[in-house]
């Protein structure tokens, strides 16, 4: 192994560890807090967490094995199963992010009608579509033997070693990425940009009220006035930063891999093998980023994590103080 392959191997190990721990933590928060379970977005987050966890334990370790050994991990049948899972889980993850963006759009643009427009049965219907959509592409690719070990990505993924079905594979690849990556990206942009538009409108209304209040309060201290103006600026930037994070992480993690897969369809264009692994690592890194982007940085999840930690610390402190109290009782002299 050269230096680049060693670095990439270490990167895959780090992604596996971070993805496993963060997604397990999201799952623990979901099971611990009944309020999270009652919310409709919790179902979408649960589905996304499930896909990320399964991808972490099934595909990432085998990519690491393929990168280190430079050979296919397991037999052809085993690799087809892993490739089926990789196609299904990656597609399901993208569509789950699109579903979360639709949920946020309805909540912000139609706040009074949100509970009637997005109920648990509506969320179940959306999740059913994401599963059917993902299953259809994965099943077609596997049944046509377009899933196998790909040396460029050191992974069991979409691959077509037969020249006789090259045209059909090209059509399927373009169609697949158009209705997974491109469709999800368009939904993310449309919904989150509308959310941003509404958020900026509300910020302007709040800014007008704040400025009118500052004008009326003639005797207000300059430091208080300055803090109010700084809070206005932070409020405007907060919504933009969140929307940029949602769309930016999606593009940064998935776009290089999808573009590489499209470029790969042209045999005359050479692709650096190290770049193939890097693009694959970027897609895996999305599984490690999602828990923070969609869950753990939110106030409700942070509070739940704090409650869990405090409960564990309280229990450990009680266990530690128990024997000490027993020893103190035993050390009390008795009068005979």
TrEMBL record:
Residues 22-294 form the G-protein coupled receptors family 1 profile domain. This is G-protein coupled receptor 26. One of its GO terms (biological process) is adenylate cyclase-activating G protein-coupled receptor signaling pathway. The chain crosses the membrane at residues 6-32, 44-68, 124-149, 169-195, 243-263. SUPFAM superfamilies: Family A G protein-coupled receptor-like (SSF81321). Orphan receptor. Displays a significant level of constitutive activity. Its effect is mediated by G(s)-alpha protein that stimulate adenylate cyclase, resulting in an elevation of intracellular cAMP. Keywords: Cell membrane, Disulfide bond, G-protein coupled receptor, Membrane, Receptor, Transducer, Transmembrane, Transmembrane helix. GO terms for molecular function: G protein-coupled receptor activity. It comes from Sparus aurata. Pfam families: 7tm_1. It is a multi-pass membrane protein. It is found in: Cell membrane. InterPro entries: GPC_Orphan_Receptors (IPR051880), GPCR_Rhodpsn (IPR000276), GPCR_Rhodpsn_7TM (IPR017452), GPR26/78-like (IPR049579). One of its GO terms (cellular component) is plasma membrane. PROSITE patterns: G_PROTEIN_RECEP_F1_2.
